[in-house]
Amino acid sequence: MVDAAARAGVKRYIINDFGWGLSERSLPEFKVIGDSRRVAWTCAIEHAQRGEGKDDGFTWTGITIGNPIDWALAKFPRMGFNIAARRATIYDAGTEEFTGTTLEGIGQSVVGVLRHPRETANRFVKVRSIQTSQNELLAAFERASTAGGEGRKEEKQWEIERSTAQQALEEGRVKHAQGLGAWRLDLLVFQLYAPGEARCIVASRADSDSALLGVREESADDVVEKALARARS
C-alpha cells in the first residue's frame, strides 16, 4: 500500500494505526497485535528513507491517540460503564488516570497533520483530548443522569459495583489460553486501570502535539455527553 501511494504521488502517508504508537508498556499478550501494526510503520519509514522516497517527496506520520474515549465508553461496558443499564464497575480505587482522544479530536489531528506538514513529517505525533480517571467519569455520568430535562431527576441512578484490575487481568489470561477473543478487553482494563502503573497516559498536555494540531482539551462532562449521544444513536 505504501509503494502504491508513493507511485500515485501521495506526499503524506498517514499510518493506519491510531492507537498507542511506539509505547513499550503493553502486556506481552498484545505483542502479536503490535507486531502486525508495525509492518505498516516499517514500510512507510523504509520507503521515506530510501532514495526514491527522498526523490518523490514521500513522507509519513503516525498519530498516537491512546483510547478513543467517547466511542469506547459507548461501545464497551467492560471499560466500567454500562450505559444502557446505568451500572458502573469501578476497578480498585478508581483513581488511576489515563488519556483519551475523542472522535472529534482524532479527526482534528488528521486535519492538523495536513496543515502542518513540515512539523509532523516522518514521526509519530501524540494527541489527547482528556486525562481522566474512572471516578471523574462516574461523577460526570451521574451529573448527566440527574440533569433530566427541565431540572427533573431521571428515575434510575447509577449502580456501582467494585472489582480490581488484577481480577480483569487474570480473567483475560484464562480466556487468552482458551482462545477466546474477549481476552483483549479484559487485558485492556488492566492496562487502563492498574493502580500506580500509568500505562495508558500518552503524554501530558504540554508534551503532546495537541496544541500544534488544534486538538482541544475536553472535560469529563464533554466526553460523557458524547458517549451518551453515541450510545443512543
Properties at a glance:
233 residues; alpha/beta; Rossmann fold; three-stranded mixed sheet
Short description:
By secondary structure, the chain is an alpha/beta fold. It has one domain (2-232): Rossmann fold (3-Layer(aba) Sandwich). It is 49% helix and 13% strand.
Q: What does this protein look like?
A:
This protein has a three-stranded parallel beta sheet with strand order 1-2-6, sandwiched between helices. Strands 3-4-8 form a three-stranded mixed beta sheet. Strands 5-7 form a two-stranded antiparallel ribbon. The chain is globular and about 60 Å long. It has helices at residues 2-7, 31-49, 51-56, 69-75, 103-115, 117-120, 134-151, 165-177, 183-193, 210-213, 220-232; strands at 12-14, 59-64, 81-82, 87-91, 98-100, 123-126, 130-132, 159-163. The model has no long low-confidence stretch (mean pLDDT 91). Strand 3 (81-82) and strand 4 form a beta hairpin. It has a single domain (2-232), classed as Rossmann fold. By secondary structure, it is an alpha/beta fold.
